[in-house]
Design goal:
Elements (H helix, E strand, L loop, with lengths): L1 E2 L5 H10 L5 H11 L14 H10 E2 L4 E7 L6 E6 L5 E9 L2 E5 L3 E3 L14 E4 L2 H15 L3 E6 L9 H11 L12 E5 L3 H10 L4 E5 L5 H7 L2 H4 L2 H15 L3 E7 L7 H11 L4 E7 L13 H13 L4 E3 L28
Parallel strand pairs: 1-2, 6-9, 9-10, 10-11, 11-12, 12-13, 13-14
Antiparallel strand pairs: 3-4, 4-5, 5-6, 7-8
Helix pairs in contact: 1-2, 4-5, 6-9, 10-11
Length: about 350
Amino acid sequence: MTDLLSMTKPELETLMEQLGEKRFAASQLFSWLHKQRVTSFDEMTNLSKALREKLKKNYNISTCTIAKKLVSVYDETVKYLFTLPDGEQIESVVMKYKYGYTICVSSQVGCKMGCTFCASGIAGFVRHLLPGEILAQVYTAARDLDVRISHIVMMGVGEPLDNFDNVLRFLQLVTNENGYDMSMRNISLSTCGIVPGIYRLMEEKLQLTLSVSLHAPNDTIRSRTMPVNRRYPMEELLKACRAYTKTTGRRISFEYALIAGVNDSDACASELAQRLHGMLCHVNLIPVNSVKERDYTRSDTARIKQFMHVLETRHINATVRRTLGSDINASCGQLRRGEGPGTEKSNE
Ligand code: SAH
């Protein structure tokens, strides 16, 4: 079976030709998939019955079935556990902001990267998500909540740049003006620092925001908490980031999860400021979220303030990310494949 939701319009046109249909059928099909966002062929009422039957034989439409839905009692954040067509499960989160709804989508089932503070890799890596499976997270949540989701952050389970081709295709599909028509400027993609992926993305010159998970001011600390740093050390990573901002003109957002006693000292802040000096960037400080298998402690509020102060005195723009969905394990680094624990307090 081939996933139709993952196919571009030109690919659908070729397919229609091969099936002896008019090219126009491809536009109708694309519209059913990405505008009406139906999940079955029988709903595509302006396609002939014969065509629908032909499609059913060899093609499917990626879906996300809601296996579990949790709503935070604090801030209305919604976490979905979705079941994919092959039975694998992933999580997505929808957050409500003043300016609209943002969805945090997963890009892989599990993760290979092994960051020591993150839950996403604990159960290992299973497979990449198809473009249609990333899209289906957006479409399913928007339908279920009956809202327009206006922003996407690729910050769920998985490393997007480790699934480059499918992620790029997802970005092209979700921003297609004949489909969901999301603005590329409303999309953020977060990477743990896969350097060749950053260069490849740079060549696409997309208007999205690139977030880079830095979490340390030097290789010693970073290699300890993020194994990817042994492959792509900080100097190479920051060089790629500088090239990225130069080519795209887009500011990079560096994510820095503050872990008590690990990376949150004034010396760490100074070193970080020194390394980022002169870059078109912003630092997003995240009080580290708890993951039950790990024993990291978040830095206290006073420490976070002081860390930010050191950055600011050195002219590095920084903000502290608000924690959302903490009662349903829906915060950064808490998403995982399959069912997450500790959700008893929440509304179902
Ligand atoms: N693989 C990508 C996408 C994940 S995005 C990446 O690494 O960037 C999720 C963000 O949350 C990343 O910045 C990640 O490093 C961060 N994160 C992971 N575990 C966390 C935790 N326990 N607390 C706070 N942030 C965490």
